[in-house]
Design brief:
binds zinc ion, 4-stranded antiparallel sheet, alpha/beta, Rossmann fold, Isoleucyl-tRNA Synthetase, Domain 1, elongated, about 45% helix, Rossmann-like_a/b/a_fold, ATP-binding, single chain
Length: about 650
């Protein structure tokens, strides 16, 4: 390597142990909780209701209309639906998840015409983008995908035919086939049902209907302003249509979902018990779906449970394609450096979880995502610190102290509390708080307990529980596996080995040094250029080089008086046990310990002010014994004991002179 080389100053990280497997009694702790049902708010009844736990049920979600890139409003929907699915499945349910792709629509036809592209080609292109977004957000893919174009002949046309046969639909010449709301209401009176399930309240409905009446170009031809198109006749300039007994055309929007649900349900012989979508679909889309299905089956009820997810707002307005105030999912996910622990998708997921109910609207801002990122870093930081601690702990059994029992019980309580919150209408905010509580309490425990003297089980349980809680709500490996090594052997646990790491550091130093030397000789503009290259080099080390070796280096904000030069100072977590957990000589590998001659020259009362302890403590008692750590906190009783032993050793050293 030109310009630099490395050598090992002293043995570091020599005591490594693989994380011991949980013993049987601890594994029981994770599997012993009884299966409880997920209680979810039902938009149809306005009540919290339990979802079934057994197999043989299905859930249908209205999927995207694929004509443009998806934005963060869609992303919130996808992520919350994914969390709903994971939580429901965790109760023992194994539902079939069906999602439709709307690939026939006015907007698709208009966008294709603008691009001189066929509507099918355009729809496929954006469908691919949708799958990429879904994967990047770590959302599970549906069990079954239904495309509208693939169901027109087999499912949608026969469905409309039956509605026409049952006098629930009528022909408007030159326009299409319409659903007959008045005819439906007449029949449904006898079956204790009526049009308008899921529709807004009476006043709001009148307002909507009035608006519809004003806007509608077909209002004159329809029998009732609430009637809606089941089949739209082909327009002269359109070339995207199917043959039917009424004439060439294409299905209306609402009919596709009712017909495809019927098709999948009868093919698999599985009833649909949940229907989901964004809150804007409640009326008219879902209201009309219910009317069509009740008319088709001639009964006054259909899918029992309706789940609706609230809007995402930005600057006071709903984020939408039509308002042109959107941020695409691709932009959110590409706008960050990618490293092992950096994960904008997980930051976004944590934000979705921690905002108020999934049913309420939320306001997006970069600042809020940044806050979520900081919270996720707190979780990740604990996992990395704890794994390092556990690698230094010895595996033989040790007696538990009150502190150990207390951590174990705290983790159990928070796990149960978090789970209860999720099962109670997906209470994500409290769930996030419980995960953070475990991380904070675990970090406190880490700072007060030494890996040599403390049993490993309480911390092992804390780490495993936190990982399980993260996995349950769908965080990716960047978060759930933080701190875990990809290779595990005695000689090297760093990906690529310690030699590779030290080579990289030596190379980094060479770059920084040569830029600094260049800056000494040149004018001001070039200094700026060199400085920006230097900062880039610092970022590359943090974001690319170290993460590729399984090492996380995270910049932390510090108080002004601590650092006059920069805004942040780096803290190297992975593979280094936090300073407070180990005797000093083990965690300062780049600081040479004092020689025994140098030690002998230190008077007893200055022992904690010199050598390896210099700068570690803020205050001392009259004998020179530390009372405050350098951050101003009290020296814990455990550390006091440890330091007393060190002092005794030094006293005996001095006595020998
Ligand atoms: Zn739908």
């Amino acid at each position: 390597m030109p310009g630099a080389s490395w050598r090992r100053l002293m043995p570091v990280l020599s005591k490594r142990h693989a994380l011991p497997p949980l013993n049987e009694s601890l594994s029981m702790f994770f599997s012993a909780s009884p299966r409880e049902a997920l209680k979810l708010y039902n938009s149809l009844t306005g009540k919290l209701e339990s979802l079934p736990i057994g197999d043989s049920v299905a859930c249908y979600t209205c999927g995207p209309t694929v004509y443009a890139p998806a934005h963060l409003g869609h992303a919130r929907n996808y992520v919350l639906m994914d969390i709903f699915r994971r939580v429901w499945e965790s109760t023992g349910a194994r539902p079939v998840f069906v999602l439709n792709i709307t690939d026939v629509d006015d907007k698709i036809i208009a966008a294709a015409a603008q691009n001189s592209e066929s509507p099918v080609e355009l729809a496929r292109r954006y469908e691919e983008a949708f799958w990429r977004d879904l994967d990047a957000l770590n959302c599970l893919r549906p069990t079954i995908v239904t495309r509208v174009t693939e169901h027109v002949e087999s499912a949608i046309i026969p469905y409309i035919e039956r509605l026409v046969d049952q006098n629930m639909a009528y022909l408007v010449p030159g326009e299409g086939i319409y659903f007959d709301v008045r005819a439906f209401d007449n029949v449904m009176q006898r079956l204790n049902s009526r049009y308008g399930k899921l529709a807004p309240s009476v006043q709001a409905k009148d307002f909507v209907l009035e608006n519809q009446r004003k806007k509608s170009t077909t209002g004159e031809s329809k029998k009732d302003p609430r009637d809606f198109a089941l089949w739209k006749f082909k327009k002269p300039d359109e070339n995207f249509h199917w043959a039917s007994s009424w004439g060439e055309g294409r299905p209306g929007w609402h009919i596709e979902c009712s017909a495809m649900i019927e098709s999948v349900s009868s093919a698999l012989n599985v009833p649909f018990c949940v229907h989901a979508g964004g809150i804007d679909l409640q009326f008219p889309h879902h209201t009309n779906e219910i009317a069509q299905a009740e008319a088709y089956h001639m009964r006054g009820h259909w899918i029992e449970h309706w789940l609706h997810i609230g809007h995402l707002h930005i600057d006071g307005l709903k984020m939408s394609k039509s308002l042109k105030n959107f941020i695409t999912i691709e932009h959110l996910l590409s706008d960050h450096p990618s490293s092992k622990i950096s994960s904008p998708a997980d930051d976004f997921r944590l934000w979705c979880l921690s905002t108020s109910s999934y049913r309420s609207p939320v306001t997006y801002s970069q600042e809020r995502i940044e806050q979520a990122k900081q919270k996720r870093f707190e979780l990740v930081r604990f996992l990395i610190d704890a794994e390092a601690w556990l690698r230094h702990s010895v595996t033989e059994r040790k007696k538990w102290t009150a502190d150990d029992v207390s951590l174990f019980q705290f983790v159990q309580t928070k796990n149960a509390q978090g789970r209860d919150s999720l099962l109670n209408d997906l209470g994500g905010a409290l769930y996030v708080e419980c995960m953070l509580d475990i991380a904070h309490e675990g970090s406190r425990y880490l700072s007060e307990c030494s890996p040599e003297r403390t049993p490993h089980e309480p911390l092992t349980v804390a780490v495993s529980t936190l990982r399980a809680m993260m996995s349950l709500v769908g965080f990716s490996d960047s978060t759930t596996k933080a701190g875990q090594h990809t290779t595990m052997n005695e000689s090297s646990s760093i990906v690529g080995g310690e030699s590779a790491l030290l080579d990289e550091l030596a190379q980094f130093r060479t770059t920084v040094r040569s830029l600094a030397m260049k800056s000494m000789k040149v004018d001001l503009n070039n200094v700026k250029q060199n400085l920006s290259a230097l900062l880039q080099s610092c970022d590359d080390l943090r974001d690319r080089t170290l993460p590729s070796m399984g090492i996380a280096l995270i910049d932390e904000k510090v108080e002004e008086e601590e650092s006059k030069v920069g805004e942040t100072v780096p803290k190297l977590w992975q593979f280094c046990v936090p300073t407070s957990n180990l005797p000093q000589e083990q965690n300062t590998p780049f600081q040479q310990p004092l020689s025994s001659d140098e030690l002998k020259a230190i008077p007893l009362q200055d022992f904690f002010k010199a050598g390896q302890y210099a700068g570690q403590f803020a205050d001392f008692d009259e004998t020179g014994f530390p009372t405050k750590n350098k951050d101003g906190s009290d020296v814990s009783s455990r550390l006091r004991k440890k330091l007393s032993k060190k002092l005794e050793k030094h006293a005996s050293r001095l006595r020998k002179i």
